[in-house]
Design a protein that fits this description.
alpha/beta, Rossmann fold, 4 domains, six-stranded mixed β-sheet, four-stranded antiparallel β-sheet, 14 strands, 56% helix, globular
């Protein structure tokens, strides 16, 4: 944003994840730029350190929607002192400002001894500010009318955009080309998929096995042509994800007037044309003559041109749907439905003559109808199809076209080309219009508890709130001063006892394989050392801060100690109260609060705690005791008011960041651990929310547990709430390990004792000063290594002595031992996982209800398109129509089910990694819950679909046949759903899973038995039709409905069952085996998903 001509910058929470020293440098630079360029900069910050706060000229203080103060920084304390409130000497002004308007925190700042304190509401602050001199100055400035004569003509822009249309288009073209080059893997992978698919098609439709003698031979060629079109439609489907992913950036840049939508849309379309040319060339030029299409080279290039327009039409269609849907879930649903409608009305699945009058408009509007008509005419009017069959006055090509209801005039090729070209233009225009006028979908609001809502109302109006929310919270340090000693932890009355444990580690080294980029720059070492012999100890009832600049190795050390690293090389000794650490037992007595606050989104706060306690507390803990313990933990971390709130997704809906932090802590506490690691518990929080979380942490320590926190930019209050500090420098070395002391006196004394280190200024934050004086730049200036200074200090020797003491087991003590790896039996794990999955699915209407609604819409659409065609079986085409309805339903409903389950499983897999690492359960019970919970939902959805379709299409009303139809639909939708899960389990991300899945969808479509029947396949590919699940489904559906019919077909005189056996290889007597195999595929994919989750771990730490 700063490289443009903008002179007004608005920056929101730019310090999240940065240490205080880095934040200070950034804000200082922004201040210099603002002053030099005479700009205007407004920045919102979370927990700004005093020295960062002092860089600002003006302050805007907002509270509950009211401006409490806006004016010079120098006068803000004067204003609050006039209201009777004073900032303490060792309190950061920014922290004071955020807390003084809060009912809970306000009393501690009351400074008037002559008046009794009474809560001052936000409205009263806002009114008082209007009478304050800064408020009066602001009002006077705002009331002064605009003087046009004082404004230079060049001060306001007269154009919407900062450059000419040509320059804007050129810039967008260059950026799109750069993105395509850097994303070339996707296009290469797409081309590779098409190449593999083309090889399969070439060998499946090999011309030595393909003939030009009968109409049935022509139908096989029609299948090859239809699949060529379908392959490019599926290939264009990947544009959906590529376009959707880029939309958030586009919307931001469009709204900031970087460029108009057309300048973005044109390069997206035009630059993809060469890629389309290559992709179509792979399928046409490699396969055309090998398959045995008409040898006329003109028809070869005409097929190439037609498929090029199909490819471009598909890309334009899915780009438009992406811009229309704006999210992957909505766009995927719209795209699946659009693809289904277009293919069913293409003229191949359902003959033109059999399309009902109420759907004929859809037939004429379907671009695939024009594509299929054009490609069929191009092939079957060729010389190879000019022979005249005996007893007919038409050529074989004309007979083939008429048998499936296609047009027979040559003009339909050019009509098809023209129509496709028109659709390419129309879809890209619609894409541009959608980008121009649609806004990004809004985010849901985060949870506001009832108590918090009452408190906000009371803060604004000054009314007295309920007693439950009016109790003063006190500050962190007072809690610390009054905290219970470790040996008195029972005073907090926790129902379940625990054994206080200490952690000691000595000479810990952690390294990873040297990155290839660094080796390319001349680095000879094979390993990159991230921790260089770190030593220390953590004790019960002591709160330890693990600090350092970004890249110092804080989280790395915590992951190593907690056993959460999934790769790399670990050396050194770790002991737990005198015994060597064993990860199997350590997971049972430790908790790890991750920075990202990963939880299942569709369960409540209370249910999250019940689930964690159920699986992590010992099996001999009674249910009532467990519930009492959960209630105590909720009270400890102040979650009672949120017990029934849904967790939600971070930054989207559900709990706020601060509430999620407290839930993360509670989820670990209900496991009754002795040791807790917390990674950045205050990251992303404002000062008041951070204080609430730290009060929770302090309460946890006061129970006698060992607690270690990494922390970035603490305020003075938060920093001095810690008992000890473990300070690291960049490169993975410790430079101070010891107590903070009263008002950080021990820390300050240590560093000020080092020669030439600058003294701390009065009122300065010790945490910020400590990071500044120990930075790499200061080491270079002073010519010292703080790591070496620490290694040569008396403090280091004392710490080594403590480490040796903790590493020796006390007399009479025993090593940790648990008879089983997990707290609960496998059956209990399965039931708990199923319980949580049931709650998650029941509260996820975006998945369950949308899928049910999709099934109903597809059922009604199929019922109206194939209305009463199931009862017609006098002609061969009637059987093809009935089979077409089955084929389309199986393939596209199955693909929809498979695609829709993948993001759900991907979200839950992230939670699974955390829960498995915590020792809650093994992989197979998790897979059991994920698999079994789908059974009732798929059953209801398949019943709703099956009843509607069976009745509307008019299949024979026979109880046995109806039950067979429902049976095959149920297990088909089930194995597609489980295949979607398996694809996620086998791949590292949802995006890769969808790309891999699309390839198998294409292969299953090809070998389903509809595009080309099993007896027609070459013998070297016939085996795959027996391992293709969709072919078994079609076998079961067709054989169960028509396999027992002996009436002859009018156009051939062959009995129906004999035709099915000769043309498709379907026999009614084989139905029992087909039923078992179809159900077997569901079992196979479910078991494979469980094994993939158990064996593969794509989490990299």
């Amino acid at each position: 944003m700063m490289v443009g001509a903008e002179r007004a910058l608005f920056m929101d929470e730019i310090s999240t994840g940065l240490d205080s020293s880095t934040t200070y440098q950034i804000v200082k630079s922004l201040g210099l730029i603002t002053n030099i360029l005479s700009g205007t900069t407004v920045i919102s910050l979370l927990q700004p350190a005093p020295e960062t706060y002092n860089l600002f000229d003006d302050i805007i203080l907002l509270s509950d929607g009211h401006i409490v103060y806006q004016g010079p920084r120098e006068h803000v304390l004067e204003f609050f002192e006039s209201m009777g409130f004073k900032c303490p000497d060792r309190k950061g002004v920014a922290d004071f400002l955020q807390e003084v308007t809060s009912r809970k925190d306000q009393p501690q700042y009351w400074a008037r001894s002559d008046r009794r304190y009474q809560y001052v509401p936000v409205k009263e602050f806002a009114r008082a500010f209007q009478a304050f001199h800064a408020g009066q100055s602001l009002s006077a400035e705002l009331s002064r009318p605009f003087d046009r004569s004082q404004c230079h003509p060049a001060s306001l822009t007269t154009s919407t955009y900062g450059a000419s249309k040509t320059e804007l288009l050129r810039a967008c073209i260059e950026r799109e080309w750069l993105l395509m080059k850097r994303n070339m893997f996707v296009y290469r992978f797409r081309a590779f998929q098409l190449l593999v698919m083309t090889v399969i098609v070439m060998t499946l439709f090999l011309r030595t096995n393909m003939h030009h003698r009968t109409v049935n031979d022509g139908i096989v060629y029609l299948g090859a042509l239809f699949f060529a079109i379908v392959a490019h439609m599926f290939n264009g489907f990947s544009e959906l994800a590529l376009a959707t992913i880029k939309l958030p950036v586009f919307f931001k840049q469009r709204d900031y007037l970087f460029f108009p939508a057309w300048a973005y849309a044109i390069p997206t379309w035009i630059l993809k044309i060469p890629i389309s040319c290559v992709e179509v060339a792979i399928t046409v030029f490699l396969g055309y003559y090998v398959i045995g299409f008409d040898p006329d080279v003109g028809r070869l290039f005409k097929q190439y041109l037609l498929l090029l327009f199909v490819n471009q039409m598909a890309a334009g269609l899915f780009r438009f749907i992406a811009a229309l849907g704006r999210t992957m879930v909505v766009a995927n649903t719209l795209a699946s439905f659009a693809l289904l409608v277009l293919l069913v009305l293409s003229g191949f699945v359902l003959s033109h003559h059999d399309v009902k009058k109420w759907w004929i408009w859809g037939y004429w509007m379907s671009p695939l109808q024009y594509a299929m008509s054009a490609i069929a005419v191009n092939e079957f009017l060729g010389d190879k199809w000019q022979r005249v069959l005996q007893g007919s006055n038409r050529t074989l090509g004309i007979d083939v076209l008429k048998s499936r209801g296609f047009f027979t005039e040559a003009k339909w090729y050019w009509i098809g080309v023209g129509a496709l070209l028109g659709y390419v233009i129309v879809f890209n225009i619609l894409f541009t219009l959608a980008l121009s006028y649609l806004k990004p979908l809004g985010k849901s609001q985060q949870i506001l508890s009832e108590d918090a809502l009452k408190e906000k109302h009371a803060n604004i109006t000054g009314e007295t709130p309920d007693d439950s929310i009016s109790a003063a919270a006190g500050n962190i340090n007072s809690s610390r001063r009054n905290s219970a000693a470790p040996e008195d932890s029972g005073r907090r009355g926790m129902v379940l006892p625990f054994a206080p444990l200490a952690v000691a580690f000595n000479n810990m080294r952690y390294s990873v394989d040297m990155p290839a980029e660094m080796k390319a720059q001349g680095v000879d070492e094979d390993r990159l050392l991230l921790l260089k012999g770190v030593s220390g100890s953590f004790k019960p009832g002591v709160l330890t801060a693990l600090m350092g600049v970004s890249g110092a190795g804080k989280t790395t050390l915590m992951d190593v100690l907690a056993g959460r690293k999934t790769g790399g090389y670990i050396e050194g000794d770790i002991s737990i109260s005198g015994y060597p650490k064993k990860q199997e037992t350590f997971a049972r007595i430790s908790g790890y609060c991750e920075q990202n606050d990963i939880h299942s989104p569709n369960v409540t706060v209370y249910e999250s705690l019940v689930y964690s306690a159920w699986l992590r507390l010992p099996s001999d803990v009674e249910s009532e005791t467990r519930k009492m313990f959960i209630e105590q933990v909720m009270e400890l971390v102040e979650l009672n008011s949120l017990r029934d709130a849904l967790v939600g997704l971070p930054g989207v809906n559900g709990l706020s960041t601060e509430q999620r932090k407290r839930l993360t802590i509670a989820v670990e506490l209900v496991a009754n651990p002795s040791i807790i690691f917390m990674d950045e518990p205050t990251s992303g929080l404002d000062a008041r929310a951070a204080a609430i979380v730290m009060r929770t942490v302090r309460n946890t320590v006061d129970t006698g547990r060992t607690v270690v926190c990494t922390i970035h930019q603490p305020s003075i209050d938060i920093f001095e709430a810690f008992d000890e500090l473990f300070l690291m420098k960049r490169g993975g070395e410790e430079i101070y390990v010891g107590p903070l002391g009263h008002q950080s006196c021990d820390l300050i004394q240590y560093f000020e004792g080092i020669e030439r280190v600058s003294k701390i200024k009065p009122g300065y934050n010790p945490a910020t000063w400590m990071l500044e004086v120990t930075s790499q730049a200061q080491e270079d200036i002073l010519g010292v290594s703080f790591a070496e200074v620490y290694k040569n200090s008396d403090l280091y020797q004392r710490n080594q002595s403590v480490i040796r003491d903790i590493s020796r087991a006390p007399a009479g003590s025993k090593d940790l031992y648990f008879p089983t790896q997990y707290s609960q039996s496998s059956i209990t794990q399965c039931m708990a996982c199923l319980w949580k999955q049931h709650l998650s699915y029941w509260r996820n209407p975006q998945y369950t209800v949308v899928r049910f609604f999709f099934s109903l819409v597809v059922a009604l659409m199929f019922g109206t398109i194939f209305w009463q065609l199931g009862g017609k079986r006098s002609r061969t085409q009637d059987l093809f129509n009935a089979m077409g309805s089955m084929y389309a339903a199986v393939l596209f409903m199955g693909i929809s089910y498979s695609s829709s389950v993948q993001p759900v499983v991907a979200v839950e897999r992230t939670v699974f990694y955390r829960e498995r690492a915590a020792g809650m359960y093994s992989a197979l019970p998790y897979a059991f819950g994920q698999v079994v919970v789908e059974l009732p939902y798929v059953l209801v959805q398949s019943l709703a679909y099956g009843v509607i379709v069976y009745a509307m299409i008019g299949f024979q009303w026979d109880v046995k046949k109806f039950c067979w139809y429902l049976y095959f639909m149920y297990f088909t939708l089930l194995y597609f759903t489980y295949y979607g899960m398996l694809a996620v389990g086998l791949t590292p991300s949802y995006n890769i899973a969808s790309i891999v899945s699309s390839f198998f969808y294409g292969v299953w479509n090809l070998f389903s038995g509809f595009v080309i029947s099993r007896p027609t396949m070459p013998v070297w590919w016939r085996w795959y039709s027996w391992v293709c699940p969709v072919s078994w489904t079609l076998y079961g559906l067709v054989a169960s409905q028509f396999g027992d019919l002996t009436e002859p077909l009018q156009d051939s005189g062959v009995p129906i069952n004999a035709f099915l056996k000769s043309f498709f290889g379907f026999e009614h007597d084989f139905l029992g085996v087909v039923a078992v195999v179809t159900a077997g595929f569901a079992v196979l994919f479910a078991v494979a998903f469980g094994l993939s989750i158990k064996v593969l771990n794509f989490q990299r730490r």
